[in-house]
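Quick check before the chapter quiz. The format below is the same one you will see on the exam, so make sure you can read both the input and the output lines.
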Amino acid sequence: MGSRQVTSWQDKNITVAGLGVSGISAARALAGLGAVVTVVDNGDGDAHRARAAELQAQGITVRLGRLADGGQAGEVLPEGTELVVTSPGWKPDSPLFQAAAAVGVDVVGDVEIAWLLREIGQELRAARSGGTGAAEPRKAPAAWLAVTGTNGKTTTTQMLASILKAAGLRTAAVGNIGTPIIDVVLGEQEYDVLAVELSSYQLHWAPSLRVHSAAVLNLAPDHLDWHGSMEAYAADKGRIYEGNTIACVYNVADPATENLVMEADVEEGCRAIGFTLGAPGPSMLGVVDGILVDRAFVENRQKNAQELAEVSDVNPPAPHNIANALAAAALARAFGVEPRAVRDGLRDFRPDAHRVAYVDEVDSVTYIDDSKATNTHAAEASLAAFEPVVWIAGGLAKGATFDELVRNAAKRLRGAVLIGADRALIAEALARHAPEVPVVDLDRTDTGAMLAAVREAAALAEPGDTVLLAPACASMDMFANYNKRGDAFADAVRELAAENAADTA
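Here is the expected output.
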């Protein structure tokens, strides 16, 4: 599709791949604009059938499971398809997309559709409000400030939205963060600016995207089974910078992010803005004596700096979270937000559950839930925030290796308790790089293993230590998702606290 604009959606034959949240959003929106929509999905369970029934009631065709000719619905391109809209998780080599490519049909994602629908959204809102169209000045669609990276996307996007709200701007956190972006673009609410979280999947399928400003927080191996290689994964992340108009925000500590800026084709005058946990140079944001400072969006940035907030305004003030705050501040400042709003927005921000979340203190040992640390990069950032640590780790490794993580964290570890299907991989890395660290290997993958893990960690910990759940692995071997895993950890800590209170009563 490239940057071509669709002049009309009326009667356009569109196939939507996937019956999840984004697929349903795209199907409803496009059907509402007059397109002839067919949704395809290989699933055929009760949940799929219930969703299909709702769409069919709106005149949308849905094909599920195995077709009459024996093929799978999600692999066969419906006849007459002019455009395929995919859900983020579908791999680029899926048979449906291969069939589309064979007949010259473009495949795009929901973010691409949302981008193309921005003007239509403005027209619909004007019509709803009784606007007179040509007689009134045409409002520009809301600007997009976009965030991606291997880790920290959601937190940074939420921080950004909090800062924008503190500045009095009409905004929302959308995209990969949970709210389908198409629904916001076509919705009744008028926005000044959107804080947009984008995954590598979404960026892969969004060739027309050209945002106001964007940040890549970090790059580490992840989703390589989907992208095929680290190079392809990084390239898809780098798409977020293409056509930026004001600022490309990068991580000074991660040269790969700056390389992506250098490779991007941006608008004339767009600036590269770095963020660092150290003292910032010109065109950077950083930290000086516990103060977050801006040397990018100030007059005479060679000599001047603007105080934005204190490190203590960041919740929690762990190093990786301070980096998130700096990236969010950079995007907000690129949009013209005043320093006071950066401070107030960071103070108002409350992180989601299971992200370096304090649970309790038992026998002078602090218990921290970072179940969201589902890969090695996230776990390394979490471990770097505490010392000494009794580390609870393990789960599904997703092809990851743990040598670098253990090597970097070894001096911080009081002990380790390993759970989950791929715990042996972590145990082997600990044996190689931290042989002096005591390790408890729990040979069980049932959900009750978490209580046992917390008790073993408590036995290893000393007063002043932190017991940290930062699994570095996915959760699906033992739990439905990382939220359930974090809940199990918090429940186990509370049970430990109750037992301790009973013993001392």
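If your answer matched, good. The mean pLDDT is 92.
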